[in-house]
Each structure stands twice: as C-alpha cells, then as structure tokens.
Amino acid sequence: MDTRWQALSVCLVAAFMTLLDVSIVNVALPSIRAGLHASDAQLQWILSGYALTFGLVLVPAGRLGDARSRRAVFMSGLALFTAASAGAGIAPTILFLVFARLVQGVAGGILNPQVAGLIQQLFRGAERGRAFGALGAVIGIATAVGPLLGGGLIAIAGSAEGWRWVFYVNIPVGVAALFLAWRLLPAPVYGERQGLDPLGVLLLGAGVLCVLLPLVQEQQWHGGRKWLLILAGAVLLAVFAAWERRARAPMVDLALFRLRSYSLGTAIALLYFAGFTAVFFIFTLYLQAGLGLSALEAGLAITPFAVGSAVGSALGGRAVARYGRHLVAAGLCLVLAGLGAAWLAVELRPGAGVAWATAAPLLLAGLGSGLVISPNQTITLSQVHYTEGGSAAGVLQTGQRVGTAMGVAAVGSVFFATIAGTRGDWAAAFRHGLIVVLGFVLAALAAAVADLAAGRRGSAPPDEGAQAQAEDGRGARGGRG
User: Fold this and answer.
1) DSSP secondary-structure letter at 353?
2) What pLDDT sits at residue 194?
3) Cα angle, residue 114 at apex, residues 112 and 115 outer, rounded to 5°
4) Cβ atoms of residues 22 and 48 within 8 Å
5) What is the DSSP string of 248-260?
6) What is the pLDDT of residue 1?
7) Against a cut of 0.90, is the pTM above it?
8) CA atoms of 72 and 31, how far apart (whole Å)
9) What are phi and psi of 397, to 5 degrees?
10) Disulfide engineering: 77 pairs with which of 1, 111, 260, 381, CB 3.0-4.6 Å?
11) Does 252 have pLDDT greater than 80?
C-alpha cells in the first residue's frame, strides 16, 4: 500500500477515537452516576467539559502544526489523549474523572486539525476527495456508533464498572497508533518558522469560551443572563479579527473568508452539525428514558444512520471532484427527507416499535449525511494552500463544535420544554426537537444553494487541479518518512 494511505489510516484511527468520545460517554452516564455518586451537574461537565476544551484549542493547535511539525503535534495530542483515557478509566472520584475529560478534550483538539492538514499536504485532486471521504466517514460513524459501542462495553463488563472500559478501550489503540504515527507520518517540509501569535491565541480562546459555555451549560444555568456571555464572546472575536489584520504572524489568515468556497463551506458545516448531532442526543434520551430501552438497544437503533453515513462518505469522496457543491445540496435534501420520514414514523408508531419504524429513515438520512460532511470539507479546503491547512481546518472544526453546542442547546430546550408541558410525552418531545433539527439542515441547504447560485453567475472557484500542480511545484510532496 502507498505510504500516504498508510499514514492516513493512522490519522483516521486516532481521529475516530477522539470523535467517538464525544458520543460514547452518553450511554455510560447512568453507570457513572451509580459508580461515583455523581450529581447531575457533574455528569453534565463530563460531557460539556470535553466539548469545551476540544473546541478551545482547535485553531491554535492547527496553527502550531502548520508552523512547526504536524507529525510532532499529532503525536503529542495522541499521547496526551491516551494518558488521559487511562486516567479517566481509573478515576477514583467524579472530580478526577471530570478533570481527565477536560484533558481528553484538549488532546482531541490538538490532534484533529493535524489530520486535515496532513490530507492537504499528502493528497491532490481526486485522491484528496477520497481521503476526505474517508475522514467524513469517520466523523459520521464515530458520532452515530458511539452509543452502540458504549452500550456493548457496559453490557459485557457490567453496569457497575462497565463505564471504565469506555475509556480503557482507547489505551491499546492509542499506543499502537503512536508507534505507527512515528514510522509513517511525514516529516515537516516547511522552511520558514513563523511566530505563533500568543495574543491572538488568548483573544480567540476567550471568545470561543464565552460563546460555547452558555450553550453547553444551557440546561444547568437558569435565567437569561448567561446569554450575555455570547455577546461578550462576539466582542472578543471582533477584537481578535482586528488584531489578526495587524499581526505580523497571524494565527488565522482572515483572507480565507474572502474565498466563497471557504466562507460558505464553514457556514454549512456549522449549521449542519447543529442539526445532525442533536438528533442522537434527543433520540437516545427518547429511547432510554422514555421507552426504557437499554444502552445497547438504543445504540443499535442508531446503527442504520452509521451504516448509511459510511456508504455515503465513500460515494461522496469519489464523486465530489465531478459534482462539487451539487453533491452537498443533494445530500442535504436526502437528510431532510430521512429526518422528515423519521418524524412521521414516530408520529404513527411512538411506542416500543419505534426503533424498527425509524431504521429506514435513519439509513436514508445517514446516506445523505455522508454526501454532506466529506464533500463539504473537501470543497471548503480546496483553495487553501497546504501550509495553512491545519489552521484553516481548525477554524472549520471550531465552527462544527460551536454548531454542535448550539444545536444541542436549541433542540434540547424544545425537547425538555415539551416533556414538561406534556407531562412526559417523550414521542412528542422528540418530534418537536426534530422540527428544530430540520430548520438547521434547511438553513445549511440554503447556504449550499447560495453557493451554487453564485457559481452560476460566473464566480466559481479556480480549478483545484491547476492549484494542485502549482502546490506540487512548491515541494508539497517532499519529506515523507
């Protein structure tokens, strides 16, 4: 096998492990509550703390990989993630576990931008589309299959200690991936080493924190004053943008947002992740808390989406070079159709047979999701030079994390308000939550259509193949080892 594809395989295994930990812990929360006597607020921090620290370091880590060595930064993040997983597994108290999850999130945020940056560095043209297709499959499958794997581990190891194996399973995978990363990932190929803009790091980190914190704590922090933090975050991000225009070594090249492919692609990612990730949050609650299904049964019910996502990502990675944003728009239409059919299935059969009734709709939605995530990432980064791939991917992934938090907050509010207002009608709560999800996906479709309309007016992005040839001439393929 080509060394580049072997290197990609290592990256995808590590990315799968970090993204899996976003969703796999959901089904382990009852076991953690019983084992460590955790409060609701502490359980929330096991989830939200990971999401917070993951999102905070994405852009600085991407910039660091661009400026220094993606292999070194990737391996540092992977080693830290493996160690933090071990710490979470042996956690004697809930506070220890929360701290370990915070460190896990930092490690995941360090590692993930390097994967997209390495794809930008190693692949060109149609090969890059296939590589991003594989990454898209990893994103979709990790998000959807987390509850199934978590439920299976708890079923095997027992409810008392089964939650520890949700973390232990990362250790052998992480150790093996570290060894392979050292052997297979390319050495740095950059001549000039630029500064890392510490003030920019602080401004961006504070801005993202202010935006994310009230979103991920929406159910725990009551009252309206928490939303003032989002206003403060917007101010900090505006100051960050003003600083970056003057900085000699900016952390993010704001000129990227003048590229239609990048700006609209980032908007599509934010809006789509606000929709599709929130589905699993409310569906697992509906199945477990509302219908009394086990963690394993709830995970199995979501599996059709994961299967469809894997197939769609493989197809999308091969077809994106030919169809471009049309493929993303078609995928969003399939997601709308699948989730609409799931809404109808729950309306007609809200009881114990709902898992079977929603299987085909979720398969269709998963297929559409695969045609959205990887093609959109390929198109969004298509005009970004490989030396800026990590920081550009960090911004894109930060948008995905903000979108996820925004979607869970908005959909969760409607979901829980419906349960309170209907005195425990979980099926109605799920349907009402799906309406909000469909709104986010429809907004993403509107952004994709706007991109297509702009392209028809003659402002399509330059040919990626010509850009790839120019990049190759600058030595992008050198230095693997």
Assistant:
1) T
2) 58
3) 70
4) no
5) SS-SS-GGGGGSH
6) 58
7) no
8) 36
9) -70, -30
10) 111
11) no
